[in-house]
Specification:
Radius of gyration: 43 Å
Keywords: Membrane, Transmembrane, Transmembrane helix
Strand order of the largest sheet: 1-2
Shape: rod-shaped
Oligomer: single chain
Distance between the termini: 16 Å
Order of helices and strands: HHHHHHHHHHHHHHHHHEEH
Largest sheet: 2 strands, antiparallel
Length: about 450
């Protein structure tokens, strides 16, 4: 563009700017009157603004972070807002319904209020990480190494998969905790009765070493007694050591201490005690089976008939005491139902799980397609930045030349035109490529020229 003789081009472009950017015209008038302060809208200092901006970016994805500032069309702004919204919504859905997982996991370790605070911090941390990953993928610019895009996408997809699973599990714990308590109580009751059954088996199969020793002595003595002739002098003494004196035949041997019993009477005592213990164990086991059947609730059964076991695993409110066990049980139940096709049994958990999966997939796809969009890539293009800089420099020179020659480009608003460049200066910000950038589209007539 020749600033000395191509005023028609400048006139057309400035007319377009005035018609499409009334805010710049208003700023230009203020600048011309010396009334504009570029910092008048900043009620906070720079450090405070930076902190608040970083905090806000952890909560929601800033659409302005998803594109560059070189050349931003309406389409880029619209797509950036849509992509930022999809990432934010997906992460918020995952975060809200992941909160129960963190809360129940910590509830058994901390007081409920403190557990809730820690769970909120954990949920917020995951939310922030998800927003950062999503934004990092969506704003990947031309020239970045491919691993920065695909690595970020892999991290985003992995996080969303974990969050989607956590969402289903969290809702399952929140919505179906009574059923989880029942399932766990059934497991504990089965284990308790299995232990009782194993005790019976042990009593039936095991032998007391003392009993084996005494039984051997009794058998040997009895064999020896039967081989002695009636006239043998030691026969009576052997009998007494084995069974006691004939005069003690009516004695209640149960009243004598074990060590004072004759050998074979000791065998009888040990056998009776074992049989009694076995009968008691069998009767107790049968009674427990009956009580369990009649009670109809394994939680109530454990609370009444196995209080020590109940207190070990459950609270006074009949809820699972360990958060880790609760999370593990909910995880198993959710994925067992999904793998077996019993999706309808998940109820609300199924709906939230599907909602989380859909929004997560949508956010990942939109972040990737946004990053690969040509318009978004152009918004970071340093070559296009140079062209834009040259364009405004030529326009500035044309304005200066017109002013020097006392030529009116647009006579009725010429004073405003003289301040338009200053107005653009306040919109003009350095970006991380070291060049200036304009946040808004320029005259449509020049767009084809830049892209060529």
């Amino acid at each position: 563009m020749n600033p000395s003789n191509n005023f028609d081009k400048v006139r057309s472009d400035i007319t377009w700017i005035i018609s499409t950017r009334p805010d710049l015209v208003a700023k230009a008038k203020l600048i011309a009157q010396g009334k504009y302060n570029p910092n008048q809208d900043d009620s906070l200092n720079k450090d405070e603004l930076t902190f608040l901006r970083c905090l806000l970016n952890l909560i929601i994805v800033n659409p302005n972070d998803l594109h560059g500032k070189v050349y931003v069309t309406d389409n880029v702004e619209s797509r950036s807002h849509l992509t930022a919204s999809s990432i934010t919504i997906a992460n918020w859905i995952n975060g809200i319904f992941s909160f129960p997982l963190f809360f129940f996991l910590l509830e058994s370790t901390f007081f409920p209020i403190f557990a809730g605070m820690v769970a909120m911090l954990a949920t917020g941390g995951v939310l922030g990480i998800g927003n950062i990953f999503g934004a990092s993928v969506a704003k990947c610019r031309k020239g970045n190494r491919s691993w920065s895009l695909w690595g970020g996408l892999l991290a985003l997809v992995g996080l969303n998969v974990i969050q989607t699973g956590a969402t289903g599990i969290g809702v399952e714990m929140m919505n179906n905790r009574s059923e989880l308590n029942r399932i766990y109580a059934t497991k504990i009751a089965n284990n308790y009765l299995t232990d009782k059954e194993n005790q019976i088996t042990y009593l039936q199969q095991s032998e007391n070493p003392i009993y084996l020793n005494v039984k051997e002595r009794c058998d040997v003595g009895t064999t020896q007694f039967n081989t002695l002739p009636p006239s043998h002098p030691n026969r009576d003494a052997l009998y007494v050591s084995l069974y006691g004196a004939f005069a003690q035949k009516d004695t209640n041997w149960n009243n004598l201490p074990f060590e004072k019993l004759p050998v074979c009477r000791q065998v009888t005592r040990l056998e009776n005690e074992k049989n009694q213990e076995l009968e008691t164990a069998i009767l107790s086991y049968q009674n427990l089976l009956t009580e369990r059947s009649q009670t109809g609730s394994d939680l109530v059964f454990l609370e009444k008939f196995a209080p020590q076991v109940f207190n070990e695993h459950f609270t006074n409110q009949r809820e699972i005491k360990s958060g880790t066990i609760l999370v593990g049980l909910a995880t198993t139940e959710v994925f067992n139902k999904i793998s077996s096709g019993k999706w309808t049994e998940l109820g609300l958990s199924y709906f939230i799980f599907i909602l989380s999966a859909i929004t997560s997939i949508a956010s990942c796809v939109m972040a990737l397609t946004h990053a690969l969009s040509k318009d978004v890539q152009n918004s970071y293009d340093p070559q296009l930045q140079i062209i834009i800089d040259d364009y405004f420099q030529e326009m500035r020179q044309a304005l200066m030349s017109a002013q020097a020659n006392d030529t009116h480009i647009i006579p009725e608003i010429d004073p405003t035109i003289q301040s338009l460049e200053n107005s653009y200066y306040h919109e003009y910000e350095p970006n991380d490529m070291g060049t200036g950038n304009i946040n808004y589209p320029l005259p449509e007539g020049d767009e084809k020229e830049w892209q060529d």
